[in-house]
Write a structure and sequence with these properties.
alpha+beta, three-stranded antiparallel sheet, DUF7573 domain-containing protein
């Protein structure tokens, strides 16, 4: 297949006929909503709140002072909430 293939090139590779595809797409089960569905008001707020504080960087570059030894570094790693130099980071 060339780099400039079209979507119809991929469609020809399927074994499904047009009639089978049309029957599958218009089945009553797929068209009607499931009666067990709720009104969409699920309580996702607890999941969002618990994940809100976990997105922290682990590395920073720039001019930083190590929180442990005080030396100036251009590369700092986060360890226990503080930015530390590579020498103070326990690997």
């Amino acid at each position: 297949m060339t780099d400039d293939a079209t979507l119809t090139d991929f469609e020809a590779a399927t074994d499904e006929t047009d009639d089978e595809r049309a029957a599958r797409e218009t089945t009553p089960d797929a068209a009607e909503p499931d009666e067990t569905d709720t009104d969409g008001d699920s309580d996702d707020s607890s999941a969002t709140e618990s994940n809100a504080g976990t997105a922290l960087s682990t590395y920073a570059w720039g001019t930083y002072a190590c929180a442990r030894c005080g030396t100036t570094t251009e590369r700092a790693w986060r360890d226990d909430g503080d930015y530390v130099c590579p020498g103070c980071k326990p690997w």
